[in-house]
Write a structure and sequence with these properties.
alpha/beta, 10 helices, 5 strands
Length: 205
């Protein structure tokens, strides 16, 4: 089965750590710097930078439209960016929750760390996550437009995102695949997270 591995690097006025992925993804200021991706039957990682006027990759749109599987590290974030930023802004087909498989969830099922860089080191991989905090602190958290980023730093964004895809794929190799029941449980959990939990606010108060 052909799978698509993806990673987004984004920017926003919203503080991701303080507000969480749902509020971040739905904030009107949130946008995409780059999306790196690789298909499981290819060896090359590609990168889409909408700020350069590049059209959304047709092969990715076809994969989504035909129900193809999408993998990512902490895939809920990529899903929300698809739903609330990429799909409405670039007329991209909306992937279903059930199309996503989270490599971080597979790692946690093995007792591995939930952070990509930590997991790669715990597995003893030579393919490691690049440091990106300087780029994030300089551009993402200040919502700097892509066109205002120097070309050499745009190149660093591409490299950083592509390496995240490579590291995610490398982490997935030694991990066993989750069973269909385990993925069903993961997707149910995602639906619950999306819907929230009803609360009796009078009782809470």
């Amino acid at each position: 089965m052909r799978k698509l591995s993806i990673d987004f690097e984004t920017h926003s006025r919203c503080d991701l750590k303080a507000r969480g992925a749902y509020v971040y993804a739905t904030d009107p200021s949130t946008g995409v710097y780059v999306m790196s991706y690789r298909f499981s039957d290819e060896h090359q990682t590609h990168t889409w930078a909408p700020g350069d006027g590049e059209p959304f990759p047709a092969e990715v749109a076809r994969h989504i439209e035909t129900g193809g599987t999408i993998t990512a590290w902490n895939a809920a974030f990529e899903r929300l960016i698809f739903w609330y930023v990429v799909c409405p802004d670039y007329d991209v087909p909306e992937p279903a929750i059930e199309q996503f498989q989270c490599t971080a969830a597979r790692a946690r099922a093995h007792g591995m760390p939930g952070a990509l860089g930590d997991c790669a080191r715990a597995l003893g991989l030579t393919q490691l996550k690049l440091p990106g905090s300087d780029l994030i602190n300089k551009y993402s958290v200040h919502n700097v437009p892509w066109g205002a980023i120097p070309l050499e730093d745009q190149a660093l964004w591409r490299e950083y995102c592509e390496q995240d895809v490579a590291t995610e794929l490398a982490c997935g190799v030694p991990l066993r695949e989750l069973t269909s029941d385990e993925w069903r449980e993961y997707h149910v959990n995602e639906h619950i997270n999306d819907r929230g939990v009803p609360l009796d606010l009078d009782l809470v108060r």
